[in-house]
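Much of what follows relies on a compact textual record of a protein's fold. Each token is a code from a learned vocabulary of local backbone shapes. The record below shows the convention in full.
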Amino acid sequence: MKNKVLLSFDIEEFDLPREHGAEISVEEGCKVSAEGLRKILRLLKKCNKKATFFVTGNFAQCQPELVKKIVTEGHEVACHGVDHFKPRATDVAESKKIVEGIAGVKVVGYRQPRMFKIDYDELKKSGYGYDSSVNPALIPGRYNHMGEPRKPYKRKGIIEVPVSVAGKLRVPLFWLALHLFPVKLYKKLARKSLKETGYFATYFHPWEFADLAKYKIPKYIKRNSGDVLIKRLEAVINEVNDCDFVTFKEFVKGIYK
């Protein structure tokens, strides 16, 4: 049986400038993310790969046609809260209602903004089947999930699918790693994670693939962004092309039949 690759994208309004003291409207943030999302969809079509898109309610309402395009091109749509900058306890249920209404499909997956703590009881109550809000690593200033399992597990009736890390140090292989690591190193670590767990799950944001030059955000985030990041992501996809690319929904179904 081939190893599995789970590509995912958190389709949210670009709100990073607000974390650094600069205002940006939800509408402008959605336009920035829409620019990047179009590039992602073109790349996936070119490579003939499927992915999972965790969409906020704000983005779905601002860019409904793009959300529908995700579905028509054969990808999975899941939920990512409502307002990415100000998550609320009610978002678990409300985002499902918004995204399902716009996408026209049943949503079974969730990811909490910024990988913050999630209420599994609320997920179950709202009708979700899986969650992917755990990066089993230490990200200073965000979270410490070093004690969490690296492989899928069940909690309160919800299947948790952790994103991938590599080695005993649990090197994170999330979006920022592809900006900062040499591509050769990132590909080597992805292979290592595949060998260790049998699957590779990573995530990015559409705004990373847009033009970020004018925005007040840290330079290390702007590094290797835009079209450069598209090329880097394509190199990673080609590196693991011998694996099966599946959506999170397909992956979960394959494990827990």
Observations:
- The two ends are 16 Å apart (CA to CA).
